[in-house]
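User: Some background: our group keeps a shared notebook of sequences we're curious about, and every so often someone picks one and asks for a predicted structure to add to the entry. Today it's my turn. The entry only has the sequence so far, pasted here. Could you supply the structure so I can complete it?
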Amino acid sequence: MPGDLATDGRNDAMAPESPDWEIAREVFFALEEDRLFFQHEVICAIGAPADILYREALVRMKVDDRVLPPGSFIPALERLSLMRPFDCFVLRRTLDALRAAPHAHIGCNVSAQSARDDHWWKSLFRELAAEPDLAARLIVEITESTRVSPGDGRAFVRHLKALGVRVAVDDFGAGFSADAVRMCQPDIIKVDRSFLRRVRQRTFTAAELNRLVRMARCIAPLLVIEGVETAEDVQIARDAGAHWIQGYYLDAREASASKQVDS
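Assistant: Of course. Here's the predicted structure to add to the notebook entry:
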């Protein structure tokens, strides 16, 4: 197995012995062996960290003594069109987390490749219909890394919304996010983390970020800027007009505050 499960996107991805298949086998072995787990990243108000919109469940995979982020294996699953069973697993685990935390709101990613109202989702949709409180606390984030099938995607999103689930478009401004926006009329737009980094690197101006934020706020009532890693990023996001933010800096600050309370 490749050391970091990375692939080079070659055209032979579908060959049975391709690196992508090697990665896919590892992922589904990890699923069977309970080596997939979730870290929750907080999304909070920019001026009030205690005001939490929701927490995003981010999947991780244990391989030997390493913990791999989704970027190490999700692209291979997408190239092999194997996201449906994986996304069903992620959503089911998210529902379990919501049941375990009756007052929490939790979001999870679903690939645009999986956004089809078909038999894969029937049992999960039945659960959501039977537990409306659960549905009301769930946010499904449509990722931008593959194209959305307009008809199938709209049917999928309509079904989710009819059940009371909120829908977000992840990584707005990157990949195929514009297709997802046109398809799903989202409740939440999440501005891709690359824009904050580019403002820091001065390859994207604060004024351009402000224009992107204003555009996104015309599309959805709630807007989140992702990728907040420093106090400077918080200020950049505030100046851009964002109300909600997400990123490592917030979780590190929250963890530090919890330690102080415990001590």
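Suggested note for the entry: Residues 1-11 have pLDDT under 50 and may be disordered. The chain has eleven helices and nine strands.
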